[in-house]
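Hello everyone,

My group is preparing for a crystallization screen and wants a predicted model to guide construct design. The compound we'll soak is molybdenum atom. Before spending weeks at the bench, it would help to have a computed complex in hand. I've included the protein sequence and the ligand's SMILES below. Output in structure-token form would be ideal because that's what our pipeline reads.
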Amino acid sequence: MSLNRRKFLRGAVAASAASVIPVNWVFAGNMPAGVAPLDIKALTWMRAEDLPEHYTVLNSKPLNAYPAPHMLDAPVTPAGVPFYRWNGHLPEFETIDPDTWTFVVDGESVEESKTYTISDLKAKFKHHTLNLTLECGGNGRRNFHPGAKGNQWSDTAVYCAQWTGVLVSDVLKDCGVKDDAVYTGHHGADVHMSGNGAAISRGVPIDFAMNDSALIAWAMNGEDIPYLNGFPLRIIYGGRPGSVSQKCIKGMSVRNKKHDGQKMAAPAYSVPKFPVAPGEKVEKKDFETIEEMIVKSLITFPKTGTVLTQGKPMEVRGHAWAGLKEVVKVEISVDFGRRWQTAELTRPVNVAAWQQWKTVIELPEQGYYEVWARATDSNGDTQPLVQPEWNPKGYMFNGCHRIAVRVV
Ligand SMILES: Nc1nc2c(c(=O)[nH]1)N[C@H]1C(S)=C(S)[C@@H](COP(=O)(O)O)O[C@H]1N2
Ligand SMILES: [Mo]
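Reply:
Good plan to model first. Here are the tokens for the complex, ready for your pipeline.
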């Protein structure tokens, strides 16, 4: 069924797409001929050229693109909106058959190596549906001074979709984890840009694998996972750097040492063990692996550049997240950080789901303003106004998000 739908979409007979959409598609009849519904079409995007205007494409080979912040306004990010981050060649999505796809658990520290089909996973383990925030370790990199090499992500290499799958921990328990297990290693279907070996193969400390509510997921927002977000199966660790959430996952190894796959060695996904001066060189031995993302917020409404009428109050809103911790406060400033007003804030629906905040601002007179947002987590950590500790690879930027508005 799902495969048929994809084949159908590839046929681009968009005008009758309504007939295959499994949800109540209100106003479907008003869709002009030749226009395909955005979120359904997004399931099969494969090229930079397929992406609509709300994306900024950083690279097409490998494909890396991010959306405009106002596109992330919904509490659950819809298909067709999240950033896409690929390190190597894309898998041959069109040849993937989810019915024969397998997930292999192996490694030095597994009691028994096992192979599961997606239907085995579905039949054997309890299903979980969780909203999980996925953020690239390099999100916000372009804001560092001095700049750091790598994809110049702005502020939107982050999203929170609703994922359905089984717990990584339930599957590992089914295979048995030996006492000497230290780390996991994740294996995807995509190949390195050189044509040889894995594009990326990262892992997590075994405690995270056994204790986080991390999923081996086959659905995003109740649909098949869009190709570019990891069809037909991916792992999702909420609140950890995005690189450990392997897409198109073929298997996981239980390792008796820190995993040594592609992009595990410093300085990849690593920061200095101690603060360094901006621009300073750091030796490999002085890096440590990033394990959890940090407190941050995003303004998703209004769109930056909005023009307001004088005297009219204005709702400002967005999301906030803090790795696996909870955000306890979000504040907004419209005067470059002199005064802050506290926003209303929701509780997370589950651990590592981003939270929604909103407030009403009043801008005193005609002119140019910036709206700044800053979040504080349950440990008391707050976003810095300018930039956090500088690091050579430009990871973990969590300075305040800013938008510009004009009152006329
Ligand atoms: N197979 C595979 N999985 C991968 C990657 C990749 O290149 N290949 N990139 C990782 C990185 S660095 C990030 S930030 C996230 C991005 O997930 P997204 O494309 O759904 O936004 O996927 C991770 N999983
Ligand atoms: Mo990433």
